[in-house]
Amino acid sequence: MKKFILLLFLLNVSFLFAQKEISGIVKDNTGIGLPGVNIIEKGTSNGVSTDSNGAYKIKVNEGATLVFSYVGFSNTERAATNSTINVTLSEEGGQVLQEVQIVGSRNTKRTVVNSAVPIDIISVKDVTTQSGKLEINELLQYVAPSFNANKQSGSDGADHVDPASLRGLGPDQTLVLINGKRRHQSSLINLFGTRGRGNTGTDLNAIPASSIKRIEILRDGAAAQYGSDAIAGVINIVLNDDVNELTGTVTYGAFNTNAKGDFPTGTANTKGYRLDKNGNGNTFGKNQSFDGGSVKVAANYGVAIGEKGGFANFTTEYINKNKTLRPGFDFRKGFGEAAIQGFNIFANMVIPISDKTEFYAFGGRNFRDTDAYAFTRTDGPRVVESIYPGGFTPRITSNIIDISMAAGFRTETAGGWKIDISNTYGKNLFHYYTKGTINASLEGASPTEFDAGGHSLSQNTTNFDLSKNYSTVMNGLNLAFGAEFRTEKFNIFAGEEGSYATYDINRKPITDPLTQTIPSIPNPDYDPADPDSPMTLPRPGGSQGFPGYSPINEVDRSRTNLSLYTDAELDITEAFLVSGAVRFENYSDFGSTLNGKLAMRLKANKNINIRGSVSTGFRAPSLAQVYYNLRFTNFSSAGATEVLLSPNNSPVTKSFGIQKLNEEKAVNASLGFTANYGDFTATVDGYIINVKDRIVLTGYFDAKPLGIGVDKAQFFVNGVDTKTAGLDVVLAWKKTINDNKFGITLVGNINDMKIDKVKNGNLPANAFFGERDKGFLLASAPNNKFGLNFNYNRKAFDAGLAFTRFSEVKLLDYQMDEDVADYGSFANQVKAATDTYSAKIVTDLTLGYKLSKSAKITIGANNLLNVYPDQQDDWVEGGGYWDAVQMGFSGAYYYARLGFSF
């Protein structure tokens, strides 16, 4: 037996030593690294692809031969005799299947380095191994020049799903694709003081980072190529296709609770006054040096299918992140980031059917259980002392379920036409539950938890795409045609009765406020000399923190969309490329639109390319913007007071003369260049984006004169025209000296958005879209952001140091809702209400060491120097000492990660 065990041990040892690791860079004949080159160990299914810089790393057997293949280039073979093998591919020949298509072009021979539009290629494996960021939004925030995302607090649903934007436009003006197929949006619409207020968006955090091979960001208008939502650009997420390797990570991190600021004694979540999360949200507990403890466990594994490049790749990911708590006022003791517990599964598969036909499928399921504090209730009719002595801080929790599935066939005819037929389905469900709360009108009999209802959005998309490359037409012509049919469905479903109803003293839901008596408490501020001073204060109904959706709010609406497109790319000469696209779309609920795009690229010399484009674009109003509604009922001795966020098709909306929502219309122009000199590359692109009829959420209007049973009303409208001008810059230098690898990257964005026109018609401008509303819109487009990243690698050791500068942001606080007479003039009121968050630099540091070929340990810190915003004000939207700005408000985050691969 001992001999047998020894034999097994020796066999395993010999197997391990028979393996060797090969790395290198694959370039074209101009010296530019090629992303997505397939590298296969000949005679096996073991393979990898190059990253965005053309670099690769693969483990092979002794005596192996590597095969390098890439679209439009001849296959190259190299014997694996050295540990470093650099390859230059020549542009001849090519392959049929497994071609790499970069977003922004339907020409499979087009690469990111010679495209006519700006494209970022982000290798997620590289980014995640050199960063402590847990979610996709956080990753892109620090590596993509014009991508911005915010953590929110006190913004209901937006505390649980981060709104994000590209080039300063809305979250719903960037189209998201997965493997080139349209991704469904979240059912959440941002409402309460968030960036992207009035917008829906795609929840990128529902996609596990470990399932992603690379992210392609097309920073250019692309509605003519890909359809609605692509005004700002396109984010294409390419899923992992690795096989025969198990990779994974285990990460733990926590935030430093030492918030920097000037806080009065007794401020919640300062030393000695930390909120006790096990209490009722209004009591203090033990001090903590760290909070927001986060555990993330992820694994990815792929298996080969057949011998013709087929594969099935699977990812699973678990995340558990606790709340962060930061200094807040008495009315907002739970200020901080939400807690998240989530589980992801994702899969990506390709099965070759013949030499020229393959079946593919991908999809997954994301579940998140989130938990965030609402505003604190300290006294008054909202507090029932027998349940919560001294008050309470209710919690808004949610279950978010996101599912998706895509499947299709790709083939090539004998005539060279490539055909792709696919169907993609996705659904987002957002279900609210309020906890640590009460329905005050039930007084001591109130439950402390409620099902508050929620909303869902589903989308099904069928695509038919054809393309063909004519290599003999001038220097190459690529034609593409296609059709898309899409159905969308939006639902709002009611919560349990206690979450929305107001009860009378007999605990019956109030249907007639004139005959039913509402529970009340004595008014401590009652003044007999004041006829408007009530003797009692009625107890409000509905769950505190987040009143549930009622049956009157319920929505079940759907629509269809049919689109047809054609595009072409012509290499007139080796140096000059012209491309164009035209797309027709017809929606069942608002009509048709036709858009076009023209782009060009000129190779000035072997080192410099000049590129530019002009396009028209559009974005259809989302179903949520058309049909979303909220109705709140407040009761007093005089009767009922109704506040309504009115859907676009309601009588209230029509009575104010507000028209049916139409598409947003855009004109997008860009001009830039790329440069490549040895180890140095640069891209600089300027842009102008004019958007007409942007859909926004108005302020409140007096609806009493209409006599329709509501006192105040609010709407979604095609309310403003905006003009955005900016500049994206990416500069990179990489150098290898002996065993030392150096890298320096500067990414930056300069952005200037102006509101050209507020389309209020005869309605009062300040109520329609006032200064405070403008401030939220403009804050979504910060003036600039720059990131300077240093990377070093030597054998088993690597290090990264990053400096990210976030520009000044100005927001208008709740002082804008005060009486202007208190400030002397409107200009003085605006000045007093303006909160200026000055520019800040955030420093990130990471250090990694390979313990073996299969294991790596990494430690690091995000926001190493614990930098906080400098503006402090109790009038801000979130109720804490800071508003939600790009740099965040949780301070330094320290982490350790163990990575493994087998």
TrEMBL record:
PROSITE patterns: TONB_DEPENDENT_REC_3. Residues 365-864 form the TonB-dependent receptor-like beta-barrel domain. The keyword Coiled coil does not apply. SUPFAM superfamilies: Carboxypeptidase regulatory domain-like, Porins. Residues 522-544 are annotated as: Disordered. InterPro entries: Beta-barrel_TonB (IPR000531), Beta-barrel_TonB_sf (IPR036942), CarboxyPept-like_regulatory (IPR008969), Plug_dom (IPR012910), Plug_dom_sf (IPR037066), TonB-dep_rcpt-like (IPR039426). Residues 114-234 form the TonB-dependent receptor plug domain. Gene3D superfamilies: Carboxypeptidase-like, regulatory domain, TonB-dependent receptor, beta-barrel domain, TonB-dependent receptor, plug domain. It is found in: Cell outer membrane. Keywords: Cell outer membrane, Membrane, Receptor, Signal, TonB box, Transmembrane, Transmembrane beta strand, Transport. It is a multi-pass membrane protein. Belongs to the TonB-dependent receptor family. This is TonB-dependent receptor. It comes from Flavobacterium flabelliforme. The lineage of its organism: Bacteria, Pseudomonadati, Bacteroidota, Flavobacteriia, Flavobacteriales.
